[in-house]
Write a structure and sequence with these properties.
The chain is α+β, with helices and mostly antiparallel strands. 29% of the residues lie in helices and 26% in strands.
Length: 168
């Protein structure tokens, strides 16, 4: 029940923001976009590092966005430069577990298996996002990650391209 309520609220936030495409983005929308991607792409998330990764972009990644999107994200970068992952904001997702719980926030990020996320790079119309997702088992060799471009198609996020992917 809690998860259904969350999806309804997330959808309403995105619909409201889509009506005014120039609208400022807020923290709730950042979390909503991240959670929609996790859910739509079935990304396994149990534990999340408390600190958002910095998202560095190269020319190939920036080609996917308009100049207006790039300017918009300069504001996002400034606004959320000190944002930390807060409890009860990122959904816990795993194929074998009940939906509706939230991921645990890992305060050390170097002892357990943990997911590192970035604040996403978001198009003004909220139809494209680029997010850095890293899986770290903290076991020397055992992790993966990359930067992933998603496009919203028929109300769902679909992976379009991957950049800087790695596996160890």
């Amino acid at each position: 029940m809690k998860f259904n309520y969350y999806l309804i609220i997330s959808t309403l936030i995105c619909l409201i923001s889509s009506c005014n495409q120039k609208a400022e983005i807020n923290e709730a929308e950042i979390y909503s976009l991240i959670n929609e991607v996790i859910f739509d792409d079935s990304i396994v998330v149990n534990n999340v590092c408390w600190n958002f990764n910095k998202l560095s972009l190269d020319k190939d990644m920036l080609k996917e966005f308009s100049n207006e999107d790039i300017e918009f994200n300069e504001k996002i970068k400034l606004k959320f430069r000190n944002l930390k992952v807060k409890p009860n904001k990122i959904i816990h997702f795993h194929y074998n577990y009940k939906l509706g719980d939230y991921a645990k926030i890992d305060s050390t990020c170097n002892e357990n298996s943990v997911v590192h996320l970035s604040v996403p790079f978001v198009s003004v119309n909220r139809k494209k996002i680029l997010i850095d997702i890293q899986y770290d088992c903290n076991c020397m060799l055992g992790g993966s990650g990359g930067k992933y471009l998603y496009e919203k198609i028929k109300g769902h996020w679909k992976l379009n391209k991957s950049f800087d992917e790695w596996i160890s």
